[in-house]
């Protein structure tokens, strides 16, 4: 099989170098390039990456603007936002813009490699640490959202169970273990959930779960 093509977009050379070393260490990943935000669209068109690791905050062109440019490409790559913060006020916009993952820059190397594989396969990467702090912080306050509640009322009881665990950042296998289901069954439930919620990916579904109050607040 051809290796997964990865592009890293960050304004800091040291960060690009470190992430590049991690990506390059995996035999099934190929680092096709690194660049700043202002160069990202041209690099993506020329290098045709399958996955882009994109810094949220950059001085020349911020990550949200780059995300819009990348998602508008004829064959858009899967994009995971990178941040040094465990909360970020830009996350809501990034979710609506089609970001498929969120990773902290200090994510363990093996988890970063796993995230790239998941994104390349069409999935979304929601590490539990990021889910609780970033997505939870984004939807915090004001109680359950009426629109989100209306959406989740279209789900079956089992789909609600799956959505709640998806909102906690659990992978399919973990959800299957928790609910005593097969992983194939969980995958089918998630496909049905995305369709009923009108969510483009697991990240957007997780936000709806938080907005609807399906996910318990993190304990101090």
UniProtKB/TrEMBL annotation:
Gene3D superfamilies: 3.40.50.2300. It comes from the Bacteria. Residues 148-213 form the HTH luxR-type domain. The modification 4-aspartylphosphate is found at residue 55. One of its GO terms (molecular function) is DNA binding. It comes from Kitasatospora acidiphila. One of its GO terms (biological process) is regulation of DNA-templated transcription. The keyword Transcription applies. The keyword Lipoprotein does not apply. Residues 5-120 form the Response regulatory domain. Keywords: DNA-binding, Phosphoprotein, Transcription, Transcription regulation. This is Response regulator transcription factor. SUPFAM superfamilies: C-terminal effector domain of the bipartite response regulators (SSF46894), CheY-like (SSF52172).
């Amino acid at each position: 099989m051809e290796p997964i093509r990865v592009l890293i977009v960050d304004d800091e050379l040291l960060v690009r170098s470190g992430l590049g070393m991690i990506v390059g260490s995996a035999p099934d990943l190929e680092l096709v390039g690194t660049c700043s935000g202002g160069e990202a669209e041209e690099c993506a068109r020329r290098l045709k990456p399958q996955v882009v690791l994109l810094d949220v905050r950059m001085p020349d062109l911020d990550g949200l603007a780059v995300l819009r440019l990348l998602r508008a490409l004829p064959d858009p790559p899967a994009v995971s936002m990178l941040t040094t913060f465990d909360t970020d006020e830009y996350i809501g916009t990034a979710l609506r813009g089609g970001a498929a993952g969120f990773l902290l820059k200090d994510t363990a190397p093996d988890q970063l490699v796993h995230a790239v594989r998941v994104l390349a396969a069409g999935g979304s990467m929601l590490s539990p640490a990021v889910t609780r702090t970033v997505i939870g912080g984004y939807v915090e306050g004001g109680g359950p959202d009426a629109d989100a509640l209306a959406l989740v009322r279209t789900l079956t009881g089992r789909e609600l169970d799956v959505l709640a665990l998806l909102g906690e950042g659990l992978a399919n296998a973990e959800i299957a273990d928790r609910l005593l289901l097969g992983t194939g069954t969980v995958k089918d439930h998630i496909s049905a959930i995305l369709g009923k919620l009108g969510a483009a990916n697991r990240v957007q579904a997780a936000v709806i779960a938080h907005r609807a109050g399906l996910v318990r607040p993190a304990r101090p």
